[in-house]
Design goal:
The chain is α+β, with helices and mostly antiparallel strands. Helices cover 18% and strands 23% of the residues.
């Protein structure tokens, strides 16, 4: 009962494979990452799972998923909603344009006091209320937080892409980070371009 946020690692096959092929294919992630200077269509899928938040989950602490001082290229993460996500389900809230050095220096890693909350004034936020099949692609250095879930299970397909070289583990904001992906899926080193080429619509 205490387990309110779970991360289920998936095999890259069947409907899961079809989902990512469509997400990366025509008009999708490949075309976006090709236009970003610190990314590439040769970025590798380094994480892939379903992230579920159960009813009763508390709001997360505001955080980024990656350190500004990471020794690897920036991570780009993708959420795909598996059902409609409304405010009662605790959608992820993003602080827009917060992926830079100044924000990382100003915001604490864990504990927030009145002085830190004051720095949020004037910043733009976006709640990721989504329809089934909608997606959000974001720089993992962006500050965000999952909201309190007062309704029912919220499930998102998630994947993260990284421009090579690929380290054995990511540089997280918190210590002891690891890739959230099955070993066999990670070891396949599939690029965004590889996955996009599987899209029948391309």
């Amino acid at each position: 009962d205490a387990l309110r946020r779970t991360d289920a690692k998936l095999a890259f096959e069947g409907d899961v494979k079809a989902c990512w092929a469509q997400a990366c294919g025509c008009g999708g992630v490949r075309e976006i990452l090709e236009r970003i200077s610190d990314a590439t269509a040769e970025a590798v899928m380094v994480e892939m799972s379903v992230l579920a938040t159960e009813r009763g989950a508390d709001r997360q602490v505001l955080h980024p998923d990656a350190s500004i001082d990471a020794e690897h290229a920036p991570l780009y993460s993708l959420f795909v909603a598996l059902q409609d996500v409304d405010m009662d389900m605790g959608p992820t809230a993003f602080v827009l344009e917060s992926q830079g050095r100044a924000t990382h220096d100003a915001f604490p890693a864990t504990k927030w006091g009145s002085e830190q909350f004051e720095t949020l004034r004037g910043l733009r936020w976006c709640d990721a209320t989504l329809r089934k099949g909608d997606a959000v692609l974001y720089d993992a250095r962006t500050f965000h937080q999952g909201g309190a879930n007062e309704s029912r299970r919220r499930a998102l397909m998630t994947a993260t892409f990284l421009k090579p070289p690929i380290p054995p583990a990511p540089t997280r904001r918190n210590a002891n980070g690891e890739w959230s992906i099955r070993n066999d899926v990670f070891n396949a080193m599939r690029t965004v371009r590889d996955i996009a080429d599987m899209d029948k619509a391309s």
